[in-house]
Amino acid sequence: MASATNPPLTPNSCLVAILLVIRSSSGSSLPFHFPPRPRFEPTPAASRITSLTTDYDTSTSSSSSNSSSDEDEDRQSTLNGRHNGTGCMTEGDYSDSESRTRVSRRSGKRRDREVSAERAQERDDRVREGLMPWDKFLGIRTDVLAGLLTPYTASGKGKFEISVDDMVFVGQPVRLRPDGTWRKRKKRRKSQGKTDAGNDDDDEGENGEDSIPVQEEGPGVGPKDERLNALSRNGSDTIDVTNDADDEGEAGDREARRKQNEIMSMFHMVFVLNPPELEYHYRVREVYEYVAKRFSRALKYEQAKDGYVSREVQKIMRLKEHAAHQDMRYSELWRQLTDNSSLAYAMMRVFLDISQSRIAHVLLNNNFALSLQIPAITEISVLPSITDPQVPGLPLTTANSFGDEEHKGDTLLGKHFTLLYLEDAATILKDLAAESTEASASLQHFVKSCIPTQSFLTISQQSGIPLHEIQVLARHLVQWRKARAIPPLQARDIYIVSPNADMKRLPQYIEKYRKEFPSLPALPKILGSLSGSPKMYNTIIPTKDHRPAYLDILAWMMKYGLVTQLRSFAWVKVPRSIKLQSPIALPDNMINSTSSLLSNSSASLLEDPESEDPALLRDSFILEPDRASGIESAWLEMMTRNQSSDIKALFERFLKYLNGRHALEKIPVREMVPRKDVRKVFKALDEYIVYVCPFLETCGNY
Amino acid sequence: MHIKAIFFAIFHPQNGPLVIAQVPDHSVTPPPPSCSPDPTQSVDIDPPLIDFDRISDFLIPKQELCHRLVTVVTDQYRVLGYPVCLVDPKYPRNEFIFNFSVVLEEEQDFSVYKSVVRKLAKMFKALEEQTGWLIGDWVEPEEHLDQLEKQQERWRMVGARVYALIEQVLEDLNNYSECMIPIDESNSINIKLFPTYAPPPPVQPFHVPVSTIDLATHITTSWDLTVQRIVPFIDGINSVRRISELANCDYKLTAKAMSHLLYYGCLVMTDVFQFSAIYAVTPEISMLLHEKGVMEECIAYIYPSIIPGTENAVLSGVDVFTLYCSLGQGLTLKKWCMEKSQKLKGVDVRRFITFGVIKGFLYRVHKWPVWTTGLGTQETPGRERVKMGDVLGGGREDEVKAKLRKFVKTGCCLDEICTEMQMSGKEVLEAMEDMDVTILCR
């Protein structure tokens, strides 16, 4: 269906809650979830059909009053407490949330009076069953829910996914292995404490991410965490040593397993989502791949190392027990939990940041800095039509920076690209300076050397940083939303107002611009001068001295998606005259076979195949001139027969760009040919080339 | 879109969760080993799609999960079920839990089948409650052990009865996307699969609807009155606002009718066609060359009245392509038409442009009036007021300017302003002349 073909542009994690469920010898339980009271609204009527035919998902208005922020909860709980006149705020709170879910389950048929009756009923239930407010979650008893979410056997490749009505539960359960360990080890480590804790456990498909030192950690965001990370790396070894006693022998294994089993034999970080029907697969996959899986992997690592998760779970359980004795308020307990347990805090951070499409930086076990994000779409190559969902301000460009026919796969940025910082370079440097790792030092050096007007290749030559390293570092900055990869900004290229520029926010941009460039012409003036027929950017630069300032403006406008580079594309046209002159005389019996060959390969003849006149004798395009068939080569030969050998040779080199997929602007950069020579070639062969933008006219000053 | 299997599972008083009927055979549970003593026969049987025991907790769950739509992903398959729990002392253990489940491939869009599963569950719940169609009251709570065999025989009968039904449901839904299966004189299974479409985009007054089908031939008197009234004015030229005026319909109703037509794909939206407008190609233009049939479609569309046998007068694909490529930023359509008048003979320029816009390889370069100095709030004083005093009847003019100012401030494109103000683009631009406004083309 439509959902599969076009991923939605707008970021939306659809995250409702994060649950930590565990299983121990005494059964399954749900120690912690965030937010304390998830806001669950049934899927917005994604389709008319379902909303017409099903009466189950209709929401009740009462659920919309729910709020997940702490302040609101406090207010709400106080109100409820007063309302019920019970004096016990927890109770009021509890029954409120309870009845809410009940109501929504029973399709809103009950009215207020019944609700309050139900509320009283719930209270009685609670007294009878000894349930605490946190013993129900989204209307399901937590022990039932925890049981469901901790299956004994794995299904599929470790992925767990179920849905109940419109709630999706997805995660990757982590189980204690039969040998009493949490992770598979490649080989037994006899000499303890020699190797670094970070290196010995890199098995089980870590996607090679750990091999890049900076990959897991954000570039200098949350400097305090990073420092802690650096500091405690040494400390972790000692813990490791003590724990390694478990590996000593079989008896040790069994003993360890028994002990572990009592505390915890499985944990599962479950992400609860509420995706719209049409985006179901996309949203669930995003959260699973980028957040749930990585979070679980990190927790498994820490659990394997020194029982981090079970320790935190015990801490949470203790606090909850304590709270139950004290009749503590629900929200107060949650505050205590997130204050005291780093795992609970991490879950809160992940929830808050991921649900707002930010990057979540968490510190696990006081030493493992983990950054999680659902990658945001940072640029689009196709302008949405007027009825498509619009995301104004998203940069629009066809310059695809990844794997740009460099034959190096997706992971490296093209060497002819550069970075455009989305934040102040100074801010990035400051954040980086806060860390003192080796990786951050090289990043700093790179950030200082990288300017948006020079390609990575040039930067590498000037700064001495190897190109490969630059590409890795640049990718890192792009991945963590500090920069965007663009073709280097050049005054001789053409820039236009981006068709996707956010015009509603233009007044804000104008203000910002005025502060940034107070002495230069106002932003509307600059944009106005880029509004007419396309021309090179340097035509609006008044004097040579203004050049750097105007390039800064250009970078600034690019950063906010206000302008985009207008790139030219071209195709090779074969006019009839060339075909007639072509020395290859086609015997009659050859025509059919050749035309079928042409239509299979690359020539688009665009004619009626039934026509008497062989289609070969009408105008056509050579769609893939660098892979020209025999007859196409003959035509190409014919076109250049009167040209000098220089032009011939250059044209041959340029052919691979003339298929409508490559911007002509790439040619001088990639082929290392001066622009004026490029222009000479195109001028000489003008009649055979169709441009998508007035390339020659606008590049007159080459 | 294909159902892999349907099965009927119950909670068996002695054996726990149990699959009673499954289509195709052995798709969910393997055949009992005793059933096929002949090893040559069992070779043909494929292993079950899923491991029922592993997911039975979800399909035959505790009461809390009953009467909810539950889906489970297992072994690359997605199982959709809607467990039903009937509480009655006549059943063993006082309850009867059953579930009709559908097995689909994991990556498949399953939203259409949600209603199928819900419907089956609710229907058999009602049937069982009213007539005891599934197991009725034959399972006595005080069943003796010696009757076990008899009981199993009865389960087999239930299984066979259900099997016949779900087999037909599976066949019909997979082949015809609907089924109508009578169960008894008063009940039948009526299911039709409706694909889920995305909600229609919001309709704007300056959008121009272009119909994708001949609406007039489909229209009947039972159609919505507004739709009936507006359809004659949907010609690819009138904007939604204009249509509402021409049809003498309320704008809100018109817009709503448009969303309905959009939802079912009967319309696509473009923007107002004007010769003063600027169009430019997008990189999608290569679809004209690479996608089969698009060029033919284009040529057929841009010549409104093509006479067979006069193909020579028709542009070739290369010409059409070259023409599209010659459009661009900074070049109004009017100027372009004059430049290319020779080639454009017989071509409906509006259709030429609309085709490109609908296919997505042309985009309209909109004009946006913007305050040159940024926020236009400082713009009001002095000069304007004096002017108002000067000119008799300047009140109206001032009103227009105040409105225009508001539009500029909120960031509207010229089209939107023209539609709202009911002025031509030229008039708006003239009125803005003495305002400190820069026109951006985007």
TrEMBL record, chain A:
Q: Which InterPro entries has this protein been placed in?
A: HTH_NPRL3, Npr3
Q: Where is the composition biased (Basic and acidic residues)?
A: 111-126
What is its subcellular localisation?
A: Vacuole membrane
Compositional bias segments (type: Acidic residues): 198-209
Q: Which residues form the signal peptide?
A: 1-29
Pinpoint the GATOR1 complex protein NPRL3 C-terminal HTH domain residues.
630-690
Family designation: Belongs to the NPR3 family.
Q: What is this protein called?
A: Nitrogen permease regulator 3
Tell me the classification of the organism that encodes this protein: Eukaryota, Fungi, Dikarya, Ascomycota, Pezizomycotina
UniProtKB/TrEMBL annotation, chain B:
The species this protein belongs to is Ascodesmis nigricans
Q: Name one GO cellular component term.
A: GATOR1 complex
Could you give a single Gene Ontology term from the biological process aspect? negative regulation of TORC1 signaling
Q: Where is the signal peptide?
A: none
> What is this protein's name?
Nitrogen permease regulator 2
Taxonomic superkingdom? Eukaryota
Report the sequence similarity comment from the record.
Answer: Belongs to the NPR2 family.
Recorded hits in InterPro entries, A to Z, give:
NPR2-like
